Amino acid sequence: MEKFSRFRDPGTGIQVFLTPVPPVGAGKVFAQILTPVALIVGVIRAALVLVTFVIWIVLNTLLGSINAFLISVFGRATLFWLGFAWLNAEVISLQKRGRAASSVRPLSSIKPTKGSIIVSNWSSWVDVLYISILFNPLFLAPVVAPSPTSAQSSPARSRENSRSASNSPTTARRRNAGAEVVTEANNAPASLGPSSRLLGFRKVSMWDMITASGETPMIRGDKNGKQDFKDIETLARKADRPVCIFPELVTSNNRGLLRMNPIFPASWRAMFRATGALRLGAGQPDIYIISIKHTPPSTQSPSSVLSVPGQRFNPLTHVWSLCASLNFSRSLQVRVLNPEESPSSEAFVADALVATTSAADPISELCGNLISQLSRLKRTGLGWEDKESFLALYRERRKP
């Protein structure tokens, strides 16, 4: 839509916030004819999802704790009713080619343990549910400071960052498995820009993260906010399960990756800059990199991404749209990086250009590069503050 064109990334031309729609005129008449059938299918699917959810909650209440087995069984059942008939994740090596790239090891052999950190891109509540099915982690939700009224507009700030990154001599272009990846250098000091508003994280449940899909980060001091935010190292160390974090902080529409934020502790960043590796000694957490890519929408299948949240009972409106579709074979491309190629691996050594980048958090930048290579999604200069401005404009335009 033209009125949201200022939220198009200037470097790549990608619109990363608007909900993806099918091509204009592709089977539109046929879809209208099948509308009554879709409504009947939607009611049946919605009833099945509701029954599954009620049984899930009852059993979980009786057991008195979050049960990984229940999440696996009922989570998969929920996605099945919504059309995700077959879910599969594969382990990918970025250092190998061809068929060997996805035959490194079975996914069942990858078991993030207590204190491990799972890093992934984020485009929908479906991502949250599927990661829970795979690894049953705790989720870390970002807590930010209120936006200063005198701040420069986010889209303008993104254009400046994008131009400085593209003109910087430290911009690296490299090819991996046929995909061109651009590493952008952020020349702004760490104390300025969007990163200065990121105060820390707080542990939340899977359900909290699902309802937060599409929304902006929690603001410290608002009516729903809490003050108990901490850094990722402290939360990971005290967690009794793996923790999952989305370095983009907000959902995109899965057409490109948003700007990665400085999520890792300052001591980790300093070590990484000095050595090109992450060697923290005894008790070092393992970092697992995941990419999730959704299939494009069609006339019979609305998008499974949730970039624009519902104003009430989020994400139930989106769940209904999936129920009332005639697609019974949705799929996700879920790829897990071979742990031996992760930044926390003993054998890992970063490229000199990545380790010495002027970005506020070189580890987060590296994770962004790896997710980009896994998913074949391009990185953009837009970030969570742009999403904040986008939602404000979108909701203003939607007012009667």
Structure description:
The protein has 12 helices and 10 strands. With 400 residues, it is α/β, with parallel strands linked by helices. It has one domain. The radius of gyration is 21 Å and the shape is globular. The chain crosses the membrane at residues 37-59, 65-87. GO terms for molecular function: acyltransferase activity. Residues 150-188 are annotated as: Disordered.
List keywords for this structure.
single chain; 400 residues; alpha/beta; two-stranded antiparallel ribbon; 34% helix; globular
Helix/strand layout:
Blueprint: H1 28-33, H2 35-63, H3 68-81, E1 89-92, E2 117-120, H4 125-135, E3 138-144, H5 154-167, E4 172-176, E5 179-183, E6 198-204, H6 206-211, E7 218-219, H7 232-238, E8 243-245, H8 266-275, E9 287-294, H9 316-323, E10 332-337, H10 352-355, H11 362-375, H12 384-398
Parallel strand pairs: 1-10, 2-8, 2-9, 3-7, 3-8
Antiparallel strand pairs: 3-6, 4-5, 9-10
Helix pairs in contact: 2-3, 2-9, 3-4
GO molecular function, one term: acyltransferase activity
Keywords: Acyltransferase, Lipid metabolism, Membrane, Transferase, Transmembrane, Transmembrane helix
Protein name: Phospholipid/glycerol acyltransferase domain-containing protein
